[in-house]
Structures are given as structure tokens and as C-alpha cells.
UniProtKB/TrEMBL annotation, chain A:
Belongs to the binding-protein-dependent transport system permease family. CDD domains: TM_PBP2 (cd06261). This is Peptide/nickel transport system permease protein. The keyword Ribosomal protein does not apply. Gene3D superfamilies: MetI-like. It is a multi-pass membrane protein. SUPFAM superfamilies: MetI-like (SSF161098). Pfam families: BPD_transp_1 (PF00528). Keywords: Cell membrane, Membrane, Peptide transport, Protein transport, Transmembrane, Transmembrane helix, Transport. InterPro entries: BP-dependent_transpt_permease, MetI-like, MetI-like_sf. Residues 103-291 form the ABC transmembrane type-1 domain.
UniProtKB/TrEMBL annotation, chain B:
Its main location: membrane. It comes from Xanthobacter agilis. This is Peptide/nickel transport system ATP-binding protein. SMART domains: AAA (SM00382). It is found in: Cell inner membrane. Belongs to the ABC transporter superfamily.
Automatic annotation (TrEMBL), chain C:
Coiled coil: none annotated. This is Peptide/nickel transport system ATP-binding protein. SUPFAM superfamilies: P-loop containing nucleoside triphosphate hydrolases. Keywords: ATP-binding, Nucleotide-binding, Transport. It comes from Xanthobacter agilis. Transmembrane segments: none annotated. The keyword DNA damage does not apply. CDD domains: ABC_NikE_OppD_transporters. It is a peripheral membrane protein. Pfam families: ABC_tran, oligo_HPY.
Amino acid sequence: MSLDATDILPRAAAASAPAAPKPRRAVRTSSFGYRFLRSRTALAGSIGLALVAGAALFAGQIFPGDPLDMVARPFMWPLTSAEYPLGTDMLGRDILVGLVYAARVSLAVGLAAAGLAVALGVVFGALSGYFGGWVDQVLTRITEVFQTMPPLVFVVVVVAILTPSVSSIVLGIAVTSWPQVARLVRAEALRLRDAEFVQAARVMGMGHFRIILTHILPNAISPVVVAGSILVASAILTEAALSFLGLGDPNLISWGSMIGSGREVLRTAWYMTALPGLAISLTVMALNLLGNGLNDVLNPRVSLT
Amino acid sequence: MTRPALLDVKDLTVRFRTPAGRLTAVDRLSFNIAAGETLAIVGESGCGKSVTAMALLRLLRSPPAEISGSHVRFEGTDLLALSERAMRDVRGNRIAMIFQDPLSALNPVRTVADQIIESLKRHTSLRGPALHRRAVELLDLVRIPEPHRRADDYPHHFSGGMRQRVMIAIAIAANPRLLIADEPTTALDVTVQAQILKLIVSLQKEFGMSLLLISHDLGVVAETADRVLVMYAGRKVEERPVADLFARPLHPYTRALMRARPTPGLRRALLDEIPGIVPSLADLPPGCAFAPRCAHADETCARLQPVLEGVGGGGSVACLHLDRLAGEKPRAPVLEGVPA
Amino acid sequence: MSAPVQTPALEVRDLVVSYRTGRGPLSAVDGVSFAIRPGETLGLVGESGCGKSSLAKAIVQLVEPTSGALKVEGHDITGLNARERRALRPKVQMVFQDPMGALDPRQRAGTILETPLKLNGVRGKAERRARVASLMEAVGLRPEFIDRLPHEFSGGQRQRIGIARALALDPAVIVCDEPVSALDVSLQAQVLNLLRKVQRETSVAYLFISHDLSVVEHIADRVAIMYLGRIVELAPRETLWRAPLHPYTRALIEALPRMDPGVSRIADKTIVGGDLPSPFAPPKGCRFHTRCPIAVARCAIDAPALSDAGDGHLVACHLASGAVPAPNASAALQPA
């Protein structure tokens, strides 16, 4: 039984929108940009993420030189020197510079891994949901094989086999996380393939792949975007865990490797572990906020007040 | 009105707070229903007919809904003044309601007998094995074949029409005085629709209930109601005894609605369209809400909101041009159709 | 009316659509035959589960018929390969029930109307633009609506877009599947009038499917009544209404709510009892005999064939007086 006024109202409001003297208003308030700006979560997340991304992009301009250079005396605590505000590590390297350069690696790994996972997941999910039948059976079995593997263990194995490098890490993470995306897209495609507008496309002679590209994917994309931003966050965490275990790319500095090397002096200089840890937490939080915010923004049934 | 009213609604107003602003879904609606009588509220989607039914039982969530009014007096008690707890004793007991979609109103994981028994336990003094016996009796009463066997089935074992019968059995379990039926047959096929309507009407007679029927279908209303209330954009535009209304509709909206409907046996090349669409409740014109679509409207109609005026037979109509319309020969489709 | 030898826009012969389901085989359409001539509207009435939607889907090639023939302007679709079928596809178009669900919520009106043109070889962008503009005008939509999204239209306007889309490819037949059931009465009238106007201008044939006999009675030239996968009666509109022969048709007409409280009150009506039997196990003999008020013993054994009762009035009932089995069924199926 429907007790909620929202069942009655949007219909009345939507039906009347074209007749209203100012039809533009209705258009604007439902646009992505308008809703995005009204969502505090999405806005906060994207601002946080923009700061991290800005630092990573312009690291070379802000701090020219190699982050691995030893520039001052070691074990300098944060906030004790104006020149090295976050102090130095046990080899005398500037921690602030390290954090900024490490952001590059972490974000790159996160974005690349999530991108690859989304690409794989979208293809598998769309084909399996849209075609159904044996195609779905086969693809779903394959998805399940990957899904049942414990992610971190699997990534460790992949990286160990392929030798640690950014690309092997990205591959390892993507291979373990695409099934989530595939399941999401499959559910959407399953729902959409029987929609009347998809039937209409078939009646006018549109081929299956074109239907997937023009009707299924555009309508299935919202949950994928949300899942994608969360995937970036979890990929960053996985990369950190790998680097902490010493399986990161040895030629690059990442937040995880900073934590890994700080571990040995945890009792005397805990800041060396805490600062990259804080960077990871803040970035992951920003991405999660963005993901949750997008979830509201892309769902027209949620009112943003 | 010779019989005392069972339900007396005066100036019922329901507003909703929405992101698009505050809108008035029901605007100062007054009506009453006598014991044993059938009142039908008819109108198109968004006219406020369902909101009215929900507001009577205070089923609307607040916020966003705000209900106000002089009173909603039922058996002498003002429902608007009751506590939520006291209201719960009225719902399902003295006033029962059935909905358009019986499947979503029934619990899918409990047998229909269980669901009837739940209602019996809450609203009657029956206990023990008598409960199940009464549940089967009620299923028999709503003409479900082999009620003994069907009582322990789950809702998904029943067809749409049978589910609506189960809903009716639950509704009448407490022997209510008023049954509110909100589009009870809209989701059903034509022959099943007729079966259900016939069932409701015969049970109404048998139990001496009053019936408030909410419908968009003028045909259903014509076959079932004693009196008809026509709503447009949250307001009552016409209320008449059923025979008067269909013989001589007075309000231009009522007339337009009748002429827009295909009339079997009287084929017209084209139906009479009602131009435009229903206005937004958030942005109603200052005068008569129907004026922008009305063939009889002039500039006065755009400015002045008409009040309800009495016409013969206990009816009332809200139209500034009532005198002119009442004088002219109505263009009801029944008189006008040209056999093809 | 036109010459009797005219090729029908659509001819359906002995069409069977069965599905394999979890509950066993389901024969949704069980040997249906009819023909529609250009510019004609055949109304198809039946209650849920009668197979009318499956029939519609088979005609627009959304499901594969199990057997039978489907001829569009004389060309049999069922015997063709994929490429030849694709060439005939534009000839049969569809208008859907739910005007909102039938439009992609993320596509603008212009894109929705342009897509069928693009898909079917209208190459020039300017040509497509012009065609979209004329389609919008034909269905009464203002040209500036071209950039609107579906949710910015009212229900009636959305159905206009659906009709314009169906018209885009100059079809011979449009299958209208409950096109006004989701609309309010005032919008119903607008859409029904539009369909009629379009037909006058283009001579397109309609198969108009509805559960509502009063709507069909308004728009159709001939009416077919379907019950559990079979056509039980097919007659010119006027004949069917004034002199129905099949007891199921009579039951439908009796059940129809009328706007005449002086004559027609539900309490005084005799309504056919019972529910539709399960389509998984349809009754033997005449499928309506379980609910039929006049059934005799024979009805439970023999399935009555669709027979000619004169003047193009076909009925499948042992007890319909005047109905004689047509020696040549195909002759009877042709429109008069």
C-alpha cells in the first residue's frame, strides 16, 4: 500500500512541467550539474580529490628534483623546520615531497586499475545481461570464478609471477575487481533489455550491438560511475598493502612503500608511518564521499535538500 | 439529506511540501455519505481523489503532507482530532479500505487465511478455532470457489481477481461501516472487473455498509454510485445524484469528460478532445482551474474562483456560467451520437 | 472501398506462438488467422492471458512464431533469411502501451525520431531533419519540442512521439498495443483522434489491440475477439456490437460499464462467472465452455471451428445459429 506522497506528486509535477510558463526551470533543477552542486557529499568528495590530484599532477612544478634525494638530516620531526614542514625520514628525504610524488603513483594505479576493471565488467555484464541464455550462463560462470578468489592473495600471486611493476599491480587489481562491475551492469542490462524502448529499437531494425551501445549502456552507467569511484579507493588501498609487503614497484615511491619503510622505526618516529597513512585515509574518504554523493545525484528519486 | 450522515467531511485540505514548492492536492473539499449509501469520487490522475481517501484514514506521511479542515466527522467523532492510537482502532475496523493493486497489499509469505485471521483477531472477539472457521466463511462470502482448500494458499496462487476478493474478505472481516475502494478494479480485466464490482455492491447491501468509491472510469461510476462527486485539480466541481449527473451533466468539465469517452454503439468520427493538459497543482490559475481548457470560459473565469452553488436534487456545481449552462440543452453524448 | 483483389497490408495465417517455460510448454497463440487491408483498422480484444500480446510480438518479429505464415504486403516473412527480413521490417511498426517506457529517458525527441531514419538508409542529415520536422507536425508536436527529453513531455505528448516514431518508416501496418490504456480519458481522446487522422492521411493499416471493447468499438472497422489463444469471433464493428454470436463476446459486452445509470446498473447485470483457465492447461473442446452459460455436452469435447455466419461474420461456437463451416476458410478470412 502506498502511503507516500511521492508516488502521487512527481506524476502531477512532471505532467504539468511542459505547460508551466517557465519550463526551463524544471530542466535546470534536474540537470546533472545542478544536482551535483546541491549534493554536499559529492561536492566535498570532489574537492578533496581535486586537491590530491592537483598535487600529483603538479608535483614536478611544486617540488623540482628527485623525491628520493637526501636533502637534510634524518629523523627531523614535523613542524620543527620551516623548510621541511613535515620533517624528514630515516635517510633525510623530505616527507612532504615524498607524499606529493607518491600521490602520483597511488592515483595512477587506482585510476588505471578501476578503469580496466570497469571496462572488463561493462563488456561482460552487458553481453551477459542483454543476451541472456547460454551467453549469460557462460559469462556468469567465468565471473564467478574470478569473484570467488580472495582478492589480495590473487593480486600477490599475479604480481609475484609478473615481477612487481606498476602495470602488473594494475592488472592484478583489475582482474580481481571487475566481477563487481560485471554483476552491476548485468542486472541493469537484464532490466533494460525488456524495456519497451529497447523493443521499439528492435522493431525499427536496430542491431543488438547498437542497442547495447545506444540504449543499454547509457541507461546503465549511473551505478557504474558510483562503483568506479569506490573501486579507485579500494585499488589505492590494495596498492598500499602490496607496497607495504614489499611487492610494490621498487623504482617508485608510493604511500604504501613509505608506510612499509617507516614501519621499522615505528616506535621512535611514528610520524613516518602516520603521515602517508593519513594521506591514504583522506584520499579514500574523498573517493567514498564522491561515490556516495554521485549515487544521490544520479538517482532522481533522492531529493537533495 | 433525510438520513444522518455516517461520514461528514467539511473543508478538507491536503497540502504537500515539495522541492517545487507547496502545492494543494485537495482544496476545501466537503462531502458526506449516509449509512448504506455509495458516493463515487471521479476524476483524472492528479485530481486529488486518491489523496482524499488516504487523508480520511490519515494514511499520508506528514511531512510532506499537511492535512487541515473544519472536521472529518465519522459516526460523530472528528477523525482529525483523534490520537494516532485511537485512529488505529478506526482503520480496518470501522472504516476499511481496498486498493488498486491487491498483490502489493497482501503479504506474500503468509497464507490468505492467516491474513484474514490477523484482521479478525485485531478487530473481533473471535479466538481459537473459530478464527479459521470464520476466515473460510469470509472467503466463501466473497465467492472464492472451494474456500476450505484455498484458505491455506499463498497470495501468488491466486489470480488478480481472486486476490482482490481476498482483500475484500480482509476488509469486511471487522464488519466495517464504511468501505473505501480506491480504483478497486482498474488493474482487472473487463469481466473480472464486473464480477468484483457486483460483489462489492452485493456485500455492501448485505452488511449495510457505506461505500466510498474512487475511480477514473465514468462507466464504473455510473453503474455503481448513488451520488457522484467530480474533482478537478483538487477541487470539487460538481456533485450530483447519479441519475441527474449522467442525464444532465452541468459543469463543463464533467460534460467534456463524458464526451471524450468513446460511447459504444454511438460512433462518432472523432471524439471531443479536452484541449491542453491538467494544470500543475503548484501553479494553479487564479480563477477557475478548468478555465484554460474550457469552451465556455471568459475572462471572468480566469480571475474569479467559482463557488459551489446548489442545483436541484441536492446537487451542487462550481461554475460561474451555471445559469447559462443549466438553461441550455446539454450536449450529452447519449443524445448526440450519430450511429455510423 | 477499394477493389476486392487488393493485397492485404498484413495477412496472418494459422499462426502459432508457443513458449518453453519452467511450467511446461505454453501455447500463447494457437492457430490465428486474419487479414487487414490497407487503410483498415482491425480491433483485437481479449483479456489478459488471451495471447494478444504474443500475437503482437510475433507480428513485429520480437518473438519467432512456432508455425504459420505472416505476410506483409504479400511477402511471407516467415520463410525469409535475416537480411530479407530486415528489409521488410520497416513495413510493420508498433506503438507501445506505456508512453514513458517506450522512450529512452536519455534521448531527446529529435534523436528518437531520427534513429529509425538513420537505421534505414536515410543518409543526408538535412533530409532527416526535414523528415523529423514533418513527423512532429503530423502528430501535433511543436517544432521547438525537438530538444526535449521524454520526462519533459506529458503522457499524451509522449504517445505522440511514439506514434511519430512508428510512422517514420512509412509502414504498411502499425500494431497498436493498448496505446491508450495508460492515459487519462481526456488524453485518450486526443490520441485516438490522432490515430484516425494519421490513417486518413497515410492509409496505414492498424492492428489495434485493447482490453477495452468501447475503445476498440470506436476506432476499429472490424473486431476480432480472442480467448485463450484463439479467435472466437470476428465481425465488422457494427455487426459485432449489434448482433454478437459468441457467448464470450456477449459476456464482454454485458460486462462493459456504460454511462447510463437509468438502464445499466451493476447490481442488475448478469456477469459471466469464473476466472480465465490456466493457459498452460486450456480446457478441451471449446476453450470457453468452463465459463459459458449455454454450454452443452458437445462443447467439452469438440473444439468449434471459426465458421462463416454470413457477411464476413466469423464465429467459433457450436450453438451460434447460422454459422456454417466455410468450405474455403481463406475466402472467408479476406476482408470484404
